[in-house]
């Protein structure tokens, strides 16, 4: 694409060099730059791209976009000076990849919990409707049926636009995307046009990055503030901040709730470990999901599908066909007669939701044994809270490792134990080795009991000292179950 056409997307403070040249690619990583590329120097959280301008030119960059011009100006390179390259990179990438979201119905899902489930279920539902669809999520990205591995909940703006461009080129009509708070603050979604946004809930998370809950809330809200007038903003009235999210949006506001009268009202009529009978807007539907938090997620899916123009009766048929997302309340029955549930719950609120869902179905007929840890090099403040919530809602708790990263596992466990009272400690043990912790829970379990294995869900690795080794909670369970036969 001609540079002069790309520059229409931004307000340049100064341009040095020729703008009538072809740009062959765009990148923020100097190592990925090739001949004829545009290199955008961004001041990131880990490194400042301005320090790598000379390296990008060595690798073939013919256009440098920056906030501060380098001391030495190369005669065969065009320099574009902007006030905010972090904001601009998304707009430049969107333009370079042909404005893919103008050809797609892009729906963003944001909140602390439920993003992956809602985005994935919408993706699965619209494929059941017969559409080609895309998914951008924590677990995996999909271009219709093709899996594209992912490292971040929301990719960087260049990867994101490249992915959306491929989705548009391959005929996808709808794309459902998790929108993380990091991606809003870091302007990774700058330049994208959303057809709709969904708010799930907001509780304590990522305070290692945002520093305060207010900053975290503002990041989520900024997504809705920037939605266009023609989009929809679907919010959860059962969260106390549900109305805050949409109070300044230009989009058409709609709401869903299990407790209040609103556009999309739901109620759990019956529940078991096989599924639920729901009432949604006075129509009944059987679903293969467990727990009120999943009833809320399904309401969001129903509401979004309605707002995207699907008929309510057709949506209910598709809802009944959907299955739970991998690692999200993933229930398996042991040969010994107990139930083991693998779930991604890694915040205090998520643990409360999952444990309360278990109690709603169990109704005192068995004990609840929880295996839980906390990630290293992340928000330390939530560790004692996670232990406390687990102890209050479980008969036995085994505190173990999650992804310790560069911290000592025992230090993380000690932080969790600090949140427990003497009475709590009577039902808590700690086992550093996660596999041994799961095995111990299975040995303790009796018929009718439920084991919750929380924190890793879909993850198939354990991150220790910068090395990711294979570890899958579900595989560990299957191995234990084989030994019970």
List its salient traits.
UDP-N-acetylmuramoyl-L-alanine:D-glutamate ligase, 3 domains, 34% helix, six-stranded mixed beta sheet, 485 residues, Protein-Tyrosine Phosphatase, Chain A, Udp-n-acetylmuramoylalanyl-d-glutamate--2,6- Diaminopimelate Ligase, Chain: A, domain 1, alpha/beta
Report the CATH architecture of the largest domain. Answer: 3-Layer(aba) Sandwich
Identify low-pLDDT runs: none
CATH class of the largest domain, please?
A: Alpha Beta
Count of discrete domains: 3
Strands in their spatial order, largest beta sheet: 9-8-7-10-6-11-12-13-14-15-16
What is the β-strand count? Answer: 24
Q: What average pLDDT do the residues reach? A: 94
How large is the radius of gyration?
A: 24 Å
Quickly count the helices.
Answer: 17
Short account of what is shown:
Pathway: Cell wall biogenesis; peptidoglycan biosynthesis. This protein has 485 residues and is α/β, with parallel strands linked by helices.
Description:
With 485 residues, the chain is α/β, with parallel strands linked by helices. It folds into 3 domains: 3-84, Udp-n-acetylmuramoylalanyl-d-glutamate--2,6- Diaminopimelate Ligase, Chain: A, domain 1 (3-Layer(aba) Sandwich), CATH 3.40.1390.10; 100-321, Mur-like, catalytic domain (UDP-N-acetylmuramoyl-L-alanine:D-glutamate ligase); 330-484, Mur ligase, C-terminal domain (Protein-Tyrosine Phosphatase, Chain A). 34% of the residues lie in helices and 22% in strands. It has an 11-stranded mixed beta sheet with strand order 9-8-7-10-6-11-12-13-14-15-16, sandwiched between helices. A 6-stranded mixed beta sheet has the order 17-18-22-19-20-21, with helices on both faces. Helix 2 links the parallel strand 3 (37-40) and strand 4 (63-66).
């Amino acid at each position: 694409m001609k540079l002069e056409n790309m520059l229409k997307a931004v307000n340049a403070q100064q341009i040095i060099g020729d703008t009538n040249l072809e740009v062959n690619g765009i990148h923020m990583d100097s190592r990925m730059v090739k001949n004829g590329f545009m290199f955008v120097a961004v001041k990131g959280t880990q490194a400042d791209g301005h320090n790598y301008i000379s390296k990008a030119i060595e690798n073939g960059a013919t256009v440098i976009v920056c906030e501060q011009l380098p001391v030495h100006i190369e005669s065969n390179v065009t320099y574009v000076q902007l006030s905010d390259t972090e904001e601009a990179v998304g707009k430049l990438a969107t333009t370079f990849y042909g404005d893919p979201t103008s050809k797609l119905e892009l729906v963003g899902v944001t909140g602390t919990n439920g993003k992956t489930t809602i985005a994935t279920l919408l993706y699965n539902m619209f494929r059941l409707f017969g559409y080609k669809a895309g998914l951008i999520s924590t677990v995996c990205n999909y271009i219709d049926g093709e899996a594209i591995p992912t490292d971040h909940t929301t990719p960087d703006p260049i990867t994101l636009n490249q992915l959306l461009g491929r989705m548009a080129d391959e005929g996808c009509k709808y794309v459902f995307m998790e929108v993380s708070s990091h991606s809003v603050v870091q302007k990774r979604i700058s330049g994208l046009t959303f057809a709709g946004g969904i708010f799930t809930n907001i509780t304590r998370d990522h305070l290692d990055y945002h520093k305060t809950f207010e900053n975290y809330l503002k990041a989520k809200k900024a997504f809705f503030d920037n939605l266009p007038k023609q989009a929809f903003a679907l919010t959860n009235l059962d969260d106390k901040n549900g109305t805050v999210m949409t109070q300044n949006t230009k989009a058409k506001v709609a709401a869903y709730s299990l407790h209040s009268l609103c556009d999309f009202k739901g109620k759990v009529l019956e529940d078991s470990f096989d599924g639920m009978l729901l009432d949604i807007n006075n129509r009944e539907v059987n679903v293969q999901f467990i727990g009120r938090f999943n009833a809320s997620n399904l309401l969001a899916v129903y509401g979004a599908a309605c707002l995207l123009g699907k008929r309510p009766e057709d949506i209910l048929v598709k809802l009944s066909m959907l299955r739970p997302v991998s690692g999200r309340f993933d229930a398996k029955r042991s040969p010994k007669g107990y139930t083991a549930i693998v779930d991604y719950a890694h915040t205090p609120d998520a643990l409360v939701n999952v444990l309360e869902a278990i109690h709603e179905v169990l109704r005192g007929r068995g004990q609840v044994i929880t295996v839980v840890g906390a990630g290293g090099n992340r928000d330390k403040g939530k560790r004692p809270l996670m232990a406390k919530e687990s102890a209050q809602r479980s008969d036995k708790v085994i505190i173990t490792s999650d992804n310790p990263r560069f911290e000592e596992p025992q230090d993380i466990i000690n932080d969790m134990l600090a949140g427990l009272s003497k009475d709590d400690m009577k039902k808590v043990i700690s086992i550093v080795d996660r596999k041994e912790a799961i095995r111990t829970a299975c040995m303790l379990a009796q018929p009718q009991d439920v084991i919750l294995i929380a924190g890793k869900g879909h993850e198939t690795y354990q991150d220790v000292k910068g090395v990711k080794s294979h570890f899958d909670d579900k595989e560990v369970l299957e191995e234990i179950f084989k030994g019970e036969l």
